[in-house]
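User: quick one, fold this
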Amino acid sequence: MTQEREDEMKKSILSLLLTVTILAGCGAAAVTADDKADTPALAETSAEETSASVETDEVASNESEDKSMASDVLMIADQGMFSSGGTVTDPIEGEYDPATSWTDPTRAGNTAHVDHANVFYQIPANDNGNPIVYLHGYGQSRMGWMTTPDGRDGWSDIFLKNGHAAFLVDQPRRGEAGQTASMTMDGFLDTWAEDSKEYRAGDQAWYTHFRIGLVAPERYEGSQFPEGEEAQNQFFRQMTPNTGSFDQTVEAAGMSEVLQDVKDMTGNKAIYITHSQGGGVGWDTDMTNVAAIVAIEPGGTPMEGSDQFNALLENNVPIIIYFGDYIDNGPEEIMSTGFWAGVRDGAVAFAEAYNAAGGDCTVVNLPDEGITGNSHFMFQEMNNDVIAAHIENWLGEHGLN
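Assistant:
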């Protein structure tokens, strides 16, 4: 095959892939093998290749390159946004006057829709029927699942390419679900709080606690966290405070509604991926519509015999829990090392009790798997695809991919 002909063939394939991607984004069906035969550019190429004498190694090389290009294209059949759950406040005392509207400082007669979750969803063209609901941790929003500090594919894109619909949540009182009736009172964790007298900065504190490095901008030796000033800048700018005080009951109620809505939309239970503080919310969520839980360094695990523990068992929910690096080998002098060691040991004890009671729980300590250098934010780091593949293998073992 001449270089000129090879270049023409590549242009034809790229043109077709671009057309398919645009159509899929508008809700069109994926192109099938039969459709390809009706595509002039490909039909012409096929005829010419049939009559041409092509070396076997050239064909294999071109096919490999074409498959590589196709596998890197994300085709979305449908996407949108909705809110789940929440409440409506009682009307403010008095009668609403439309003539004065928002200029009435008493807000007489007004109500407010508050404490709901907000969901952005994407359905891939190759939907495999096993949707994933993503719940962020403290100080985060759904953005953390969608990208990385250095701009690579986040987990939502990686799993979308594998056929898993993505339902990305901002939990009640956070991000795009920020509407609530009372400003946060938590002056310890949240940057803005009603009982705080000044802004509570926390870049370095969270950097240390999340085990990225001892003090920003340094990273631990062998770290998989993206390197460079701009990556750290992007990471810190993901931080998102609560608008209202964190209330696990309110958060779990919102997430239960999300899972019900996902079941209604897709007809299937969802794989539930949680992170950090979101792990606690995850355990409290109604398990009726949960197919499996993937907990990324949850802040804790259920006590044996608790309502959470029993609900997981009753609904036969398989669980896998992941922990990163710099726990056994973290600096001994800092609080965070002991904290995360205790959390992981608690997860191991939970798994033993859950499995003994007939459940299915695996705790993965990534360094034991030969996967090293990961912080609390393993889904954003340079080997996030390796960890995603580890999860996908586990899902496959449970018939969920």
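User: anything notable?
Assistant: The longest strand covers residues 76-84.
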